[in-house]
Amino acid sequence: MALVPGLLFGIAAMAAGGVLRWARLVPRGALWGIRYLRWGPATAVRIWAWLMTRTPQVATDFPGPGHSVAAAVGSGSHFGGQHVSQFVLHTEGVRDAYAHYDPPSMLSVQAEYKGLPDGIGSVAQAICQLAINCADKYPVDPAIAEVVARVQVLVLHAEAKAAEVYDVFVKEHEHDLMRFEAPRNNEHMWNIATRRPDGTLDLRNSMFSRTCEEVQHIYTRYEPESMTHVAAEFEGLPTGLENIATAVNFLAVKSADEYPVEKTVAETVAEVHQTLLRAASAAQELFPLFRRLHARDIRRHEDPRNGEEKWDV
Description:
Blueprint (H helix, E strand, L loop, with lengths): L2 H20 L11 H21 L31 H14 L6 H31 L5 H31 L1 H8 L25 H14 L6 H31 L5 H21 L2 H8 L1 H8 L11
């Protein structure tokens, strides 16, 4: 807004100066309007500097899916940045475990599809606990709990979409599954690969569901010592959700490129991944909102007055 009038005034002044030089009313070589051209940027800088003294600083840089959070969470000098988010820490475990998981058979892959909504539901319950704590336990503005609740709703949408994956898989692969559920005599003679020596097939619970349950169990029992720990959870929420989305994306990519499943199955898993990313995007509002609503409280920690601790309750 400051640059535009400065530019217009400068153009008008230079035009007037050109007319005056043509009429020989001013010496040639005088550059009219330069002061107005400099006034715009200088005014913009002064306005920006004034705004920065009135507005609390917020974090706006969040790591992308699959990136390490060491630089973003746990190493900063801002309020809460010196702590590691428990949500981030344990969702990293989900992401890393799933990145190296290689299902030995399609029955194990089936277990992953079936456990997908349960795993996401466990994450939603962890976020629900954070919303309850914000509303009933933590000394924060009620708007904070509302944002966390909105994030939880988006994760629940992802859970509902994940519930469709198993149904699509069963529908598309009814004949393949029937070979396991109601095998004909010597059904293994149709196998493409050799049979395992013990004649068994590996069928286990969902790796994704099991690791996500650990997130719920640990996070719902987590008791932060101070508001700096709570701030770390607010800052880490989008990264933690991106970790879960990354794990789901591993399943989507393998379903499309490695597993012998129909294209519709991979596409449905990819939709779950996108829904989780929308939840992570919504969660990015949380930490800046927290810093804005509690700027005065945070300033006591980041820029304490002499003897600030004497105001402790």
